[in-house]
Amino acid sequence: MRHLAIIVPASLLLAGCDRQPDVTFADASITLPDDPLSLPDLPGRDAVIANCTACHSPSTMLQQPKVPAAKWESIIGKMVEVYKAPIDQAAVPEIVQYMVAAQAAEAEAEASTKPVNVRRDTSAKPGTAGV
Known about the structure:
Layout lengths: L1 H15 L28 H8 L5 H5 L6 H13 L10 H22 L18
């Protein structure tokens, strides 16, 4: 009798698991936007396209912090070692050269478009301008 007291409630609980869920799943699709940026035409671009664009978009690559060549070598090494990225080792120097050059070109472009900082004369006392 004691076993019945356990088996009956357990059977009822399991019977509740047998019914269809109230959720209806439907197929859905999304369209991801195209990356508006393209990689600058610099030496090593083909190596970057062949080895990096399977995982990284141009905008992702071009928005990385500016780092020296040794750091790029380390980053690429981590991608190969940790994430098993299929990067051709012969292309690593070209990729590093490209990323350093692309970041330098970006920094140069930003510097040439920065507004000139004009200092105003702040030596006049308040309320005495034009007197």
